[in-house]
Amino acid sequence: MSVQSKTYVLLAGMATGGLVGAGLIGLGVPTASAAPRCSDVEVVFARGTDEPVGVGREGQAFIDSLKGNLRGKTVGVYAVNYPADHDFLQATAGAADAAAHVQLTTSTCPNTKIVLGGYSQGAAVIDGITGDPARLFGLGQPMPPEVANHVAAVAVFGNPLNRFGGPLTALSPLYGAKTIDLCNGADPVCSPGEDRPAHSQYVDAGLTSQAAAFAADRVRTFVPPGV
Residue 120 catalytic? Predict the structure, then answer.
């Protein structure tokens, strides 16, 4: 069975099993429109399946903790615009939207330090724009290599990529060293385990705070091009 087929089978199983699942995505034509305001830090976060429009519970906890770690710096937030429903292939819209916003930010706010994040299906959106994972699954292209020079940190939670080839830290040459890829115990979305409740406990387990501390450290030492 091909990697793509295995991906589809796993995602279908997550949907029918009632998990807050995750999808693998491609990259479409960038469509973000309004030019971003130039903050010190811009967080681009993709919510998980069935979470309401916005950054989701995990994203909000991560962002709140990150702001607490970066007092004195302005932190902008962009919620990736995509359906985040059980039609997982529609997550291509999330990849396109995230990539468009990131590239718009790098061109209009070159000194802004970008932090990428995603939970569950949202983590897969981030996988698809940060390098080799996009090529690995044959579902699109990553962002231009020079974009990585503006991204200070990446934080993903409950990432389905772990079920196929390993964490994003190992699979992305450009972003791996600046990434924290967290799986909560036996969360079946990102591990071979069967602890379904673990998939919804990233905030309670303190993993969003752990990731925020990691990202804040990266932001403090990161120097964008031209600075």
Answer: yes
pTM of this structure = 0.85
What is the full DSSP assignment across 160-175? GGGGTT--HHHH-TTT
For residues 80-89, give the mean pLDDT.
90
The single residue of 86, 101, 150, 199 carrying the catalytic annotation is 199
For residues 88 and 196, give the distance between their C-alpha atoms in angstroms, rounded to a whole number: 19
Q: Which domains does the chain have, with CATH numbers?
A: 3-221 (3.40.50.1820)
In this prediction, residue 137 has a pLDDT band, given cuts at 50, 70 and 90, of: low
Respond yes or no: is residue 199 known to be catalytic.
yes
**Calpha distance 106→98 (Å, rounded):** 12
Q: Are 44 and 61 in contact (CB under 8 A)?
A: no
Is 181 noted as a catalytic residue in this protein?
Answer: no
Q: Which of 97, 101, 120, 172 is catalytic?
A: 120
Q: What torsion do the CA atoms of 127, 139, 173, 31 make, to the nearest 10 degrees?
A: -70
Give tens-digit pLDDT for 164-180: 788 999 989 999 999 99
